[in-house]
Amino acid sequence: MENAQLSGGAMLVLGIIIAIVILLIPAFIYIYAWIAAILLIIGGIVSLMTGG
């Protein structure tokens, strides 16, 4: 279970980092990057809530 929480937390952090990079570099490939960031954040939250 700890491994699942760690991966969920990692997904959440990675999504947030990607979102920050997009904000700092507007020339970033917008739509795809935002979709990736949002999916990572949602996936991270779901993983943390379900514990797996």
Provide the β-strand percentage band.
Answer: under 5%
- Count all strands and give the number: 0
The sequence of SSEs as H and E is HH
Question: Count the helices. How many?
Answer: 2
- Which stretches are poorly predicted, pLDDT < 50 over at least 5 residues? none
Distance between the termini: 6 Å
Overall pLDDT confidence: 77
Helix content: over 70%
Q: Summarize the biggest pleated sheet.
A: none
The outline comes out as elongated
Q: Radius of gyration in whole Å, from Cα? A: 12 Å
- Which structural class is indicated by helix and strand composition? mainly alpha
Write up what this structure looks like.
The chain is an all-alpha fold and 52 residues long. The protein has two helices and no strands. It has helices at 2-24, 30-50. Helix 1 (2-24) packs antiparallel against helix 2. The longest helix has 23 residues, at 2-24. It is elongated. The chain starts with a helix and ends with a helix. The mean pLDDT is 77.
Topology:
Blueprint: H1 2-24, H2 30-50
Helix pairs in contact: 1-2
Describe what is shown at a glance.
The chain has 52 residues and is mainly α. It is built from 2 helices and no strands.
Features:
52 residues; mainly alpha; elongated
